[in-house]
Amino acid sequence: MEIIVLFFLFFSAFAYALLGGADYGVGVLEFFSANKNRRISKFAAYRIISPVWEANHIWLILIIVIMWICFPIYYNLIVTQLHIPISLVLIGIIGRGTAFVFRHYDAYKDRSQKLYDSIFEISSVFTPFMIGVVFGALLSGNMIHPEQIEDKTFFDLYIATWLNPFSIATGLFTVSLFAYVAASFLFVETKDHEKEYFKKKHKTTTIAVILAGLLLFGVSSYENNAFAKIALNSWSMVVWLFMVTALIYFGNKYSHNKNLFKLILAIQVLVIFIAWAIPVFPNFIIFKNGILSMLENISPDPVINSMGWALIVASIFVLPGLYHLFKTFGLLSK
Predict the structure, then answer these.
(1) What is the distance between the alpha carbons of residues 288 and 264, in angstroms, rounded to a whole number?
(2) pLDDT tens across 96-120, in order?
(3) Cα 4 from Cα 13, distance rounded (Å)
(4) Which of 180, 203, 261, 265 has the most C-beta neighbours closer than 10 Å?
């Protein structure tokens, strides 16, 4: 059952990056658009993203529940040492969701709409940035092993763990990736002048992802941190980068087929996740000193078995409903 639980944990993170990434990315595109073009991103989001945007946080909730119940030591370590950036993520989610509702459903349109727009746009950039910072902190090697926390200062435990160049670079990469996912999605879901606009955004965000990725690996190599030692010295990283480049090419070539294009987009995100997960498995938190394997710090078998069966049963009901939701609003049309 450990494999089942890990699969759902990994799948939830992947789904949140793909579907939630498209959601956040629309706001990122809006934030970096000229004033005359912001209405295009805004109304495209209402028409395409709005019907399903609330379903995206299911994946985030599932990640938290699985970590809390099945991997309590990991969960405790993450929410303690990364309490500040995680709190900022939650504030960003609340601010973004509130602003989206008020600016879209407010019956009385006045100058407050500009405030809602600003909150939505800033939160759309800030939240994925902080999500990336959290992931970067886990891989940076700056996390403190539970056996070594006694002689550490507040700064060492709660600031230095995430406020470092590698984590910041990971945050920038995450923002770029989410913008790319949104631009790609909107590129195939729009028509006429909107399609041309998002085609340009697709090309721009492709370049942004590549540059952000190079920056991430450059910072990692310069710091010679734990992630650089594990990932950059692995031939698998070269293979994954080649696959991503090939998928970008085929994605552009087959953009006339919406479902195929979306499948290629999903594979791109999946490849990035695999490139992150394989080199570090099963030690998803990297320390400068010490090792903490996720598989060796897992809940007792009865808990894992119960969670595994619960996830299997829930998926039988939830996944078909999610498919029907996307199908109803035309997001899986040919």
Answers:
(1) 37
(2) 888 887 876 765 666 777 888 889 8
(3) 14
(4) 180
Inside any domain, residue 333: no
Answer whether residue 334 is part of any domain.
no
Domain count, the chain: 1
CA 71/CA 300 separation, integer angstroms: 10
How would DSSP label each residue in 289-308? S----STTS---HHHHHHHH
Q: Residue 270 is part of which domain span?
A: 2-328
In a domain, 79, yes or no: yes
Q: How far apart are CA 242 and CA 220, in angstroms?
A: 20
Side chain identity at residue 215, one-letter code: L
Examine residue 256 and state whether it is found in any structural domain, yes or no.
yes
pTM, rounded to two decimals:
0.88
Range list of H helices, the chain: 2-15, 21-31, 38-44, 57-70, 72-81, 83-105, 112-140, 154-158, 165-189, 192-223, 226-227, 235-253, 258-280, 301-328
Count of residues making up the chain: 334
**Contact yes or no for 176/208 (Cβ under 8 A):** yes
Half-sphere exposure of 66 (CA within 13 A, CB side): 26
Contacts 24+ apart (CB under 8 A), 52-58: 52/19, 52/325, 52/326, 52/329, 52/331, 53/23, 53/100, 55/19, 55/322, 55/325, 56/16, 56/19, 56/20, 56/23, 57/20, 57/93, 58/318
Residues 208-260: pLDDT tens digits? 988 898 898 888 888 877 777 776 666 566 666 666 666 666 666 666 677 77
Q: What are the angstrom distances between the C-alpha of 296 and each of 73, 213, 230, 284? A: 10, 32, 20, 12
Q: Encoding tokens for residue 155? A: 């700064």
Helix, strand or coil, per DSSP, at residue 287: strand
Q: What three-state secondary structure class fits 141?
A: strand
